[in-house]
Amino acid sequence: MTSEELKKLQITACKVRMGIIESTHAAACGHPGGSLSSADVLTYLYFKEMRVNPQEPNWADRDRFVLSKGHAAPALYAVLAERGYFPVSDLTTLRKVGSYLQGHPCRSVTPGIDMSTGSLGQGVSAAAGMALALKCQKKDSRVYTILGDGEIQEGEVWEALMFASHYHLDNLCVMIDNNNLQIDGWVNEVMSPYPIDEKLKAFGLEVEVIDGHDLNQIEAALGRARQTKGKPYGIVLKTVKGKGVSYMENVGSWHGKAPDDRQFEQAMQELKKSLEVLEK
Amino acid sequence: MSEQKRIATRDSYGNALKELGHLHPEIVVLDADLADTTRTGIFKKDFPERHFDCGIAEQNMLAAAAGMSTCGLVPFVSSFAMFTAGRAYEQVRNSIAYPRCNVKICATHAGISVGEDGASHQCCEDIALMRTLPGMVVICPADDVEARAAVKAAYEYEGPVYLRFGRLAVPVFHEEEGYTFQIGKGEVLHPGTDLTIIANGLMVKEAVDAAAVLEQKGISTRVINMATVKPLDEELVLAAARETGRIITAEEHSVIGGLGEAVCSLLAEKCPTPVRRVGVQDVFGHSGPALELLKEFGLSAEHLVEEALSFM
Predict the structure, then answer these.
(1) d(CA B262, CA B198)
(2) Which of A111, A116, A239 is nearest to A187 (CA)?
(3) pLDDT above 70 (res B8)
(4) pLDDT for B1
(5) Residue A26 domain boundaries
(6) Does B63 contact A136 at a Cβ distance shorter than 8 Å?
(7) What ipTM was assigned to the predicted interfaces of this complex?
(8) How many CB pairs under 8 A join A and B?
(9) Cβ-contact B199, B250 below 8 angstroms
(10) Per-residue pLDDT tens for B104-135?
(11) What is the tens place of the pLDDT at every residue in B136-161?
(12) N or C: which end of chain B has fewer CB within 10 A?
C-alpha cells in the first residue's frame, strides 16, 4: 500500500483505540487490553481486506468475520462504527441496558456482527462452519477469525482446526492475537500454548508469524493467505496487550478493567497526541 | 396385543432426512463418527457431498453447524443424546440457541433403552438440558410415523430444534393415512375421565396399553401423546387436569427436568392437580438388554397400571 494509504489506516486505527477507551470508560467495565492489541488487524480487515458493505450488513456475498475472542468486542464495535455500520456516538452505550452493543458480540442485535461469541473456543468453529458452507455454495467469500492466545487453551479450538484442515478450507484465515497475557497472568505461566506456530502447522495450516501492529506486514500476510490453496491459513500476530495507551501496555490487569476518569483523560491525551502526529 | 411393525425412531430419522434431502438442497448433515448408527448414513448414501463427518469432536460440530446455518444452509447435526445435549451443551447454548441459529440437533440413543452400553451412554438428562434453553423446541416422538413427520416439521420451523430418537425398535401405532404433526400440539390417543397419562417417546405405546388394561378394571384413562415437550401444549394438559383430576406423566427420561416436571410446573401455577411422575427416578442406568432395563426401571405398561391403581 502507498504511504498515504498506510497513514490513513493508522489514523483509523488510532480512532478505533479512542473508541475502545471511550466505550469501556463509559461502561465502567469491559476489556480494553485485548481490544487494543487487536485494533490494528481489525482496522486493516474492515478497511482494506474484507469485501463488506456497511449499508447491507447481511449481503450474502460478503466476507465473514468472527471475533472468537469475543471479549475484544469494544475493538470490533469501534471498527464497525468507523466503517459506517452504526454511529460512532453509540459506542458509549456499550454494555448498557437497551444498547445493541452487548458485552460480547451478538449477531441478532448488532449490524455487522456475523456470529455471537464470548464463550472462548466456539467462534473458530463457527468460522470454520461458515467457510465450509460458503464452499458448498460455491461462493468465493472468505472467512476471517481472531482468537486470543489464552483462548487456544480450549480444546475445541484444536477440534476446529482439525476440521478446517480436513475439509481444505483455504477460504478461512485464522489469526491468533498473541499478546502474551491472559486474566491470570502470562500465558506461558498460566498454561503455555507455545509453540503456537508449530502447533498450527501440525494441525495442517499454512502459518506465519508477524508483527500484529505493522499494517504492511498484515497486508502481506493476508495477501499470502488469499493465494494459499488447499489449506487454511494461520497468522500469529505478535502484539502488545493494551497497545497505544502507555500505562496499559503489557499490564495483565488491563484485561478486564475500564479506565477511571483520570486514566481516561490520560489515555485520550496520549491517543490524541498520536493522532496529531499521524495527521501532520 | 396384535403383531405390530417395530421400527427404531433413529431409522425413521435417517429415512426422513434422505427424503427431505431430495427436496431441499440447502439441507446438510453433520455427524461425529456415528453416521452408521445415527442413521445419517442413509442420507450420506444419496448425498455424500452434503454429509460431513466431523470426527469425534462434538463441540466443534455443533458450533460449526451454527456457522453453516448463518450462511443459509440448514444443518441437521447428529450424535448420541449424551454427546449433543450433554457434551456439547454449552455450544448448543451459546452458538445455537442464543444466536437463534437454524440448526436441527438430532440426537439418537437417548434413554435407558440404549441397553448394553450402560450408564455412560444412557442419557436421561437431555430433555432437561435442552428445555432450559430459551427458544429451543424440544421434540421426543413416539413411533416411526410421528418421528418422520417431526423431522419434516423441524425443517419447516425456522429456528433451533432438538429432536430425540431411540435406538430400540418400537411399535408403530400411528396410521400413516391422514396423519399430521404439529410442533407444540399434543394428541389424545385414548379418551378417559378418571385419569390422564401424559407420555412421550416409547412410553406412549406403554400408556395406550396401560389404558386398555385399566379400562377393564373400570378406570377410564385418557392418554395424551406429548411429543413436543417445549413449547408444551398447555391447553391440552390443563383440560386433562380439570376433566380427569389426576395426571400420570410417563417418559424415558429422568423425572427431574423432563416432561413430568414441565407438566408439574404448569399445573402448580395454573391448576394444582395430583401428579405422579413415571420415569427414571434420579438414578443412573446400567448394562443389560433394553427390554429388561425398561421393565426394571418401571418404564412399562405394567408399571403404569400399578401406579394408576395406587393413585385412585
Answers:
(1) 11
(2) A239
(3) yes
(4) 46
(5) 3-279
(6) no
(7) 0.96
(8) 109
(9) yes
(10) 999 999 999 999 999 999 999 999 999 999 99
(11) 999 999 999 999 999 999 999 999 99
(12) N
Domain covering B7-171 assigned CATH 3.40.50.970 in the classification: yes
Q: What is the CA radius of gyration of chain B?
A: 19
Q: Is the pLDDT of residue A8 over 90?
A: yes
Q: Do B99 and A108 touch (CB under 8 A)?
A: yes
Task: Please count the helices (runs of H) and the strands (runs of E) in chain B.
Answer: 13, 14
Residues near A241 by beta carbon (within 8 Å), at least 6 away in sequence: A33, A34, A36, A37, A179, A180, A181, A248, A249, A250, A251, A252, A254, A255
| Confidence class for position B2, pLDDT limits 50, 70, 90 | low
Which class is B187-311 in CATH?
alpha beta
E strands, B58-190, in order: 74-80, 104-108, 137-139, 161-164, 169-171, 187-190
Residue B278 has pLDDT above 80, yes or no: yes
CATH number of the domain residue A162 falls in: 3.40.50.970
User: Under a CB-based contact definition with an 8 Å cutoff, are residues B298 and B278 in contact?
Assistant: yes
How confident is the model over A222-248, as pLDDT tens digits? 999 999 999 999 999 999 999 999 999
Q: How many domains does chain A have?
A: 1
Interface of B with A in 99-118 (CB under 8 A): 99-100
> A65: exposed, middle or buried (C-beta count within 10 Å: 0-12, 13-18, 19+)?
buried
How high is the mean pLDDT of chain A?
98
A137 part of contact set with chain B, CB < 8 Å: yes
Mutate to test the interface with A, among B26, B60, B68 (most CBs of A within 10 A): B60
Residues of B in contact with A131 (CB under 8 A): 67
Domain segments of chain B as ranges: 7-171, 187-311
| B181 touches A at CB < 8 Å | no
Contacts (Cβ under 8 Å, ≥6 apart) of B310: none
Q: Give dist(CA A59, CA A57) in Å, integer.
A: 6
Residues in chain B: 312
Joined grid coordinates for residue B198: 401424559
pLDDT band for A113, please (50, 70, 90 cuts): very high
With a CB cutoff of 8 Å and minimum separation 6, the contacts of B95 are A115, A116, A119, A122, A125, A126, B62, B63, B66, B67, B101
The helix (H) or strand (E) run that includes residue B6 is: strand B6-8
Grid cell 448433515 in the structure block, residue = B29
Q: Is residue A242 a contact partner of residue A250, using CB atoms and an 8 Å limit? A: yes
Chain B residue with minimal CA distance to A142? Answer: B71
**Which chain A residue lies closest to B50 (C-alpha atoms)?**
A136
pLDDT grade, residue A107 (50/70/90)? very high
